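User: I'm preparing a small set of examples for a lab meeting where we compare how different chains pack in three dimensions. I only have the primary sequence for this one, and I'd like the structure in token form so I can line it up with the others. Please keep the answer compact; I'll paste it straight into my notes.
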Amino acid sequence: MEAVLLVHGDREYVRQPGEELQTDLGVLDVPEDVRHGDELETHLGERFVAQKLRGPDLFEHFERTGAPMMPRDAGLVMGHTGAGGGDRVLDAGTGTGVLAAYLARAGAEVTTYETDPAFADVARENMALGGVDDRVDVRTGDVTEQLDELVEEGPFDVLTLDTGDSAAVVERAPELLTSGGFVAVYSPFVESVRETVEAARDGLTEIRTFETIQRRMDVSDRGTRPSTAGVGHTGYLTFARKE
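Assistant: Understood. Below is the structure token output for the 243-residue chain.
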């Protein structure tokens, strides 16, 4: 069963079919056969609409074990690598699992590594919440210690890395990737970008790094201007490809 998003105005909750929602708006029992678009009432008569979970909803409602990858960064990873149905993705630095879930919902089969056992457990719960636990294999461990085995397990179509030692994995990318496959590395600090690029130059092509900056626009009666709130810069994304 896949969880549903319960919406009442600007309030949102995620529940599985058969679960109970308790808020100040009343108690609501989610039917086992709930369908997207159904209107459900609490015992106080307040109406919620059941909606299908989409990628941005996972970002908002996954249990967090740190700062998750922003949707705009996940979008750039998918856009620049073309990851999608039928692809095999090796991911490292699972964290909350937002990127792994996005990739799986696009049809990819994802093997992801998380060094912290507690974080890995949360990620597995998040994959179940997102309805992608059948396409995401969350493994506990350091991916750099498993590279020989992963070369045998490969090849992979895409590598997505969000770890402090990503450069060490990039060095082995030519062995891990299929011909034409991509590697995408998220770096919160510019210093690690150089390490990644230098590692990629030995065996990979089409190496490009982007700083991800996004400004939200506020539209009011007075006029339109960039918002003074929100996160502008998030990090750096480096892409490279195997010939």
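A couple of notes for your slides: DSSP finds eight helices and 15 strands in the chain. The longest strand covers residues 177-187.

User: Perfect, thanks.
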